[in-house]
Each structure stands twice: as C-alpha cells, then as structure tokens.
Amino acid sequence: MTFRIAPSILSANFAKLGEEVANVIASGADWVHFDVMDNHYVPNLTIGPLVCEAIRPCTTAPIDVHLMVKPVDRIVPDFAKAGANIITFHPEASDHVDRTLGLIRDSGCQAGLVFNPATPLTWMDHVMDKLDVVLLMSVNPGFGGQSFIPGTLDKLREARAKIDAYTARSGRTILLEVDGGVKVDNIAEIARAGADTFVAGSAVFGAGKDSDPQRYNSVLANLRTALAGV
Ligand code: DX5
Ligand code: ZN
Question: Hey, what domains does the chain have and what are their CATH numbers?
Fold first, then answer.
C-alpha cells in the first residue's frame, strides 16, 4: 500500500504561502491540500483560483483542491486553469453530481466526492467510473484544528469495501482520502481502517519554529514512521 500525505495549507502562514508550500513538499509531503470555503456552503471564507495560480510555480507536487462551495460548477474551470490537479466537491453542493464529475474530468483534472460525517456513502454508488478520489471528512467542514470523529473509522472500512469491490470488477483504483483531525498518534489506526491518503493541517503546519526552513521534516517523518507500522 502506498500512502500519501497531503498537508492542508489552511493552517500555513498565509503571509509566506509560497515558502510554506515549497518547504512542506521539500520536507516530504506528497500533495498540497487546498481548502476552498465560500462563507455559504461552510461558515468560513478562504482562498480561490488566484491563490492556486500564485502557488502553482512553487511546487511540482499535485495540488488537491477541496471545494467547500455552492454552487460548484462555475468555479471548476477556473481551478483547472489555475493549475489544480485534483478537484473534490461535496455532493450536496451540486444539483447534478454526475455532470460536475464529468466537468472536472473534462477540464483535465482528477475528480472526487467529499462525504461529510453525516453524508451516506451511497452517493458514490452510481458514479464510481467517474471517481478518482473519495474523501471522507472526519470533522465537520469549515475549520482546521478540530478533533477526529471516531465514527469515521467504521465509515472508512465501509468505503474501503466498496472501492475494493469496484476495483476487483473494473481494474480501476480509487484513492481513499481522509480529512480532519489526523495526527501522529491516530494516523496508523486511520490507515488500518482503509485510508491511503491523509490530509493533515494543524498537525503539520503547527510543528516547529517559524524561522526553521526544515521545521516540517520531523512531523512528516513521524507520520511516515507511524504509517510504516501498518
Ligand atoms: C476542514 C478542512 C481541512 C482542515 C484540516 O474543513 O477541509 O482540510 O484544514 O485541518 P486539521 O488537520 O487541522 O483538522
Ligand atoms: Zn480539506
């Protein structure tokens, strides 16, 4: 099993965002997780395509855009043009989920659905062929620094079973990502429940001294060590 770590720049220092992105990837992260909030679908307001475009030259790592916006479709091509590699959205925020997935793929990006803690996994059943990523929220969306909701572990096992059954019949892989409250002390348990891709915001960007460009090395190494034991 290959594991991916995707630090959420929501917890980065926005005054030095380009440096933060370059440092975290140089420290061993795999993806840049990019949280887009609109103060409508979720009660917070963050960053959009302009910021995605601005950080694009700072790394060659995939930029994983997590859309917490409603409506979804209008903004998708803007993020594709801004250099996003993966675009995920919440099914409740789109009137036509299958169409939105197709739009993301047609824009040249990988597509995924995001499941809130109370959102049933059945949303994925009829669109498996259009999914590259399934993202389970392990907190309610809107803020970094919240605690992992333990019920996500059973939901991960359920999602893993659905994905494995699909892979067995289609030969296609779908990544299973988890977002919210992921830390060094729970990442192994989350991996054992079936996740292969881990968003970590406060755990990564909260680590080390601001003046040290290597400050993310040890937290990323600790996350990897925990995963190595799975
Ligand atoms: C929450 C965001 C998360 C958040 C995770 O709505 O989608 O990506 O930044 O932050 P932590 O890892 O601090 O829970
Ligand atoms: Zn996120």
Answer: 4-228 (3.20.20.70)
